[in-house]
Amino acid sequence: MKTETTIHGLAASLNPARHAKKLIGFVPTMGNLHEGHLNLVREAKKICDLVVVSIFVNPTQFGPNEDFDNYPRTLDQDSHLLADVGCDIVFAPAVEQMFAKEPRKTNIQVTEITQGLCGHARPGHFDGVALIVTKLFNIVQPNYAFFGQKDFQQLVIVQQLVRDLNMPLEVIGVPTTRAEDGLALSSRNGYLTVEERALAPQIYASLNHAKVFLEQGEALKDILEKMKNDLTTSGFEIDYVEARTPELETVLHFDQDIVLFVAARLGKTRLIDNLRVNVPT
Amino acid sequence: MKTETTIHGLAASLNPARHAKKLIGFVPTMGNLHEGHLNLVREAKKICDLVVVSIFVNPTQFGPNEDFDNYPRTLDQDSHLLADVGCDIVFAPAVEQMFAKEPRKTNIQVTEITQGLCGHARPGHFDGVALIVTKLFNIVQPNYAFFGQKDFQQLVIVQQLVRDLNMPLEVIGVPTTRAEDGLALSSRNGYLTVEERALAPQIYASLNHAKVFLEQGEALKDILEKMKNDLTTSGFEIDYVEARTPELETVLHFDQDIVLFVAARLGKTRLIDNLRVNVPT
């Protein structure tokens, strides 16, 4: 496995493979890797000849009061994990590589589907994601890019971005990797105290209960209300509990396939999860 | 010369060349071609193995009261001209190819340098340019793209866009092609009456006089004022007469290299031109 820290070095490593028509897979990450990331790499290995993983904590997707400075940087450990799952190239640029000294003047906005859900609590977050993803796609020029379904809104936004700008690649969503007790794996889980960690699986449990109730015919509105109440009672501070279509359009009734979304805080840690519920056929 | 009207067809035509490591040059146009466009193709031929010219009248860069519907579409004539200068592939997509039925949600903005000059009279114009250029670059994936210096602000904006988004290509500015009397070639010159056509070269003459006065030490502010007065007296309706740095920053004095810009109307036709003036060394 090679590690490249410059755009120039990465191009030099990738161009021979590109010219040999190898299929290039790309997994963008912010490092501090867990099994969820490694499963993205494993999926990429299945259909690509060569897999690039980027490790870059992107300043433009953090808000002023968010955890950019404290976000864990664990490159050595991440590199070992990536080598074990067959990653071919790690791209770990410094901030100066990705954002040159000369002031940037270009912004990318994805409208509508960036509003609400995580777009509400994190203003500007998805503009930062759209920008860095576009830059990384142009630098890596992959055939396929892999994103986790845990960040479902991000996945749909990136797919829209790629479609709207005719980017020459396919974005693949990979099912969420979970701990045995159901908690969606996330780098931020490391912030949880032991007590909080014991409570955290209730988010996924709540989503699954909601699914059962929906399939039994209970009203969507009542179910969302019940989820909020139950999680609040358990000690979560609710950010949102919401249903959308898989294209992120608002939905009032369970008369089509939907995705249930939860974002909630335990102490200082913000957790998100989601579950798709298909209308019975 | 091949003509492709679909994104899929263009990819099929280009991929063998791309895999053979041919250098691909790209000249985006709105058709109604003149010697200025043909010179872009000639420049492209000098350094590229294969040249693609797109002909697409882009609805997103026209304002509601502009000439989108009446903009001349002359594909047959354009194709003959392009074949004569050695263009390899004409890409002439329908609007539905470039803008699918599904609503677009992604916008690109280049800030600061899109303000003022043509950005003032044509609000939203450069957002439309940034979007279509990004889409076309992603579709064609050229090594080099060629733009005329006549649209100097557009050239600088596209260069900024490419740099900010790390697009894997180089943007090359080609000097303005002029009629014998100095008028910058433009598709819109065809709108001029005989009388207007006789007056039109005064724009370039005015720029050249200004250059001489600057080099003689006259104050920039006075010169710009004189240009406005003279052109107005001659029958032009001034949109702007302005000086900027070559990076499009505002400039008050001729203490560095500058570009002089003119936009003015003759009847219903809006003409633009510019001239670089370097500080004497």
TrEMBL record, chains A, B:
<feature type="active site" description="Proton donor">
    <location>
        <position position="37"/>
    </location>
</feature>
<keyword id="KW-0547">Nucleotide-binding</keyword>
<comment type="pathway">
    <text>Cofactor biosynthesis; (R)-pantothenate biosynthesis; (R)-pantothenate from (R)-pantoate and beta-alanine: step 1/1.</text>
</comment>
<comment type="similarity">
    <text>Belongs to the pantothenate synthetase family.</text>
</comment>
<feature type="binding site">
    <location>
        <position position="61"/>
    </location>
    <ligand>
        <name>beta-alanine</name>
    </ligand>
</feature>
<dbReference type="GO" id="GO:0004592">
    <property type="term" value="F:pantoate-beta-alanine ligase activity"/>
</dbReference>
<protein>
    <recommendedName>
        <fullName>Pantothenate synthetase</fullName>
        <ecNumber>6.3.2.1</ecNumber>
    </recommendedName>
</protein>
<comment type="subunit">
    <text>Homodimer.</text>
</comment>
<dbReference type="GO" id="GO:0005829">
    <property type="term" value="C:cytosol"/>
</dbReference>
<dbReference type="GO" id="GO:0015940">
    <property type="term" value="P:pantothenate biosynthetic process"/>
</dbReference>
<feature type="binding site">
    <location>
        <begin position="30"/>
        <end position="37"/>
    </location>
    <ligand>
        <name>ATP</name>
    </ligand>
</feature>
<dbReference type="InterPro" id="IPR003721">
    <property type="entry name" value="Pantoate_ligase"/>
</dbReference>
<comment type="function">
    <text>Catalyzes the condensation of pantoate with beta-alanine in an ATP-dependent reaction via a pantoyl-adenylate intermediate.</text>
</comment>
<keyword id="KW-0436">Ligase</keyword>
<feature type="binding site">
    <location>
        <position position="154"/>
    </location>
    <ligand>
        <name>(R)-pantoate</name>
    </ligand>
</feature>
<dbReference type="Pfam" id="PF02569">
    <property type="entry name" value="Pantoate_ligase"/>
</dbReference>
<keyword id="KW-0963">Cytoplasm</keyword>
<dbReference type="InterPro" id="IPR004821">
    <property type="entry name" value="Cyt_trans-like"/>
</dbReference>
<feature type="binding site">
    <location>
        <begin position="185"/>
        <end position="188"/>
    </location>
    <ligand>
        <name>ATP</name>
    </ligand>
</feature>
<keyword id="KW-0566">Pantothenate biosynthesis</keyword>
<keyword id="KW-0067">ATP-binding</keyword>
<feature type="binding site">
    <location>
        <position position="61"/>
    </location>
    <ligand>
        <name>(R)-pantoate</name>
    </ligand>
</feature>
<dbReference type="GO" id="GO:0005524">
    <property type="term" value="F:ATP binding"/>
</dbReference>
<feature type="binding site">
    <location>
        <begin position="148"/>
        <end position="151"/>
    </location>
    <ligand>
        <name>ATP</name>
    </ligand>
</feature>
<dbReference type="InterPro" id="IPR014729">
    <property type="entry name" value="Rossmann-like_a/b/a_fold"/>
</dbReference>
<dbReference type="InterPro" id="IPR042176">
    <property type="entry name" value="Pantoate_ligase_C"/>
</dbReference>
